[in-house]
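Aggregate trends can hide what the representation actually does to any particular protein. For completeness, the protein is quoted in full, as a sequence line and a line of structure tokens.
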Amino acid sequence: MLLLTAALYTALALRMPGLLDQPGTAVHWALTATVTFAWLLTVQVWWQRRTKVTALLAAALSVHFLGNLLNIGLGLREFGSPQYLHSIALGTLFFVLMSTAQLQVVQWMRRTQRWPGTLALIDTLMIAAIAGLGVWVLGLDGLVTRSSGQPLLVGLTLTYSLTQILLDALTVMLLLRGVYDRILWPMIGGLLCFAVADLYMVVGAGAAKPWLSLLWVWGLTLLALGVQQVMHTPVSLRPTPLPPTVRYALRRLPYAALLVCCAVLLAGAAQGSQRQLGITVGTVAVFGLVMLRQAHIAQVNRQMQTELEASRQELEHLAYHDVLTGLSNRASFVHFCEGSLGANEPYVVFSLDLNGFKQINDTFGHAVGDRMLQHAAQQLARTVAAPGRVFRWGGDEFVIVVPGVQRSADADALARLIAVNIRTPMNYRGHQLSVGTSVGYALGRGNRNYETLLSLADDDMYSGKQRSGNSR
């Protein structure tokens, strides 16, 4: 219903723009209906959720509702008129209540450890400062100067502008971090409509235009639709990682802020004395050099962080892998069994060593022996498919863990396949070198029994070696 009345008002306003300021017309009735439905929608959300945030949102939209009724009754007025003073007072209260509701969300996120961090807050304030500086230069300073004889109007104008800019910046920052996107997307649209209308008022030195009511109506409509999403959005939603392009832009946000400040300083100094111009140019030059220095330091820090992360990953890999064969090592065996196996998951542990390896190592040397170990490791890795894992235990000993195996027949079949594949010969200077293996295994369940199963698998392997008469 809200969208329908907003669309009807838009159609009537575009068709009969001359009637926008005339009360009692169909345009004004459509406007009144839209404003009323938006207000009722937010009150409904508060009634169903009954939280401090929804109460503040409902209060803010109620204030906006009163402001719209005032505009409907009195029409749009020029800046500084008595009617305008009432309107901007209600508008200021609206943005104060909206900002308070947003800050309540921030406080809740900080208490529940969902807030993206202090850096996000600093970025928010920086964006607000840049926007505030731009609005001031575009014409807010002129409005303040014109109303210098009315302290109340000056205070309301500045408060209105500051709270609106802060609310917009905080909403954008939360949206960029994926927080409450279903709520914030329509809210961003509504706040953007308000911002465009108010910016026109600033640039136009307070000149009101009838078509501005279209922006205010759609701003209110989108804002109410965003508030409605509160009923359908889970409170457990957490921030998502920033996209790379957003991270890149935020890293350069401080430099953009300094550039804006420097541009404003130079523009102002160009209209002043020669002495002031020289001081400003020198100050801007210092700022520029500081920016270059900080950018260089930031680049060096990022490079150091990249190298540190690469070193950390390399050390972690070395801690859990055998250097010679690239297989997982003993430490990885414990980590795998305790972290990857379920509490009651069946699995089999194989224990094996290489038969004939010692003869190759003694005859051809340790370098060839190392190559044979690498060759054997490759054959084992090809034989055991994921989620199974092969571990080098030391010397020519290996351990294999295969989850999901609970029958002896399956374990026997895999043991025979291991024994066959390990005999695949390795060519060395015309010699076909190969090794055999003795395999023992033990079946079990649970991620706390792996040491017992490994001991049983060792016993089974040595029993098999004694029966076959194999040795290293």
About this structure: The longest strand covers residues 346-355.
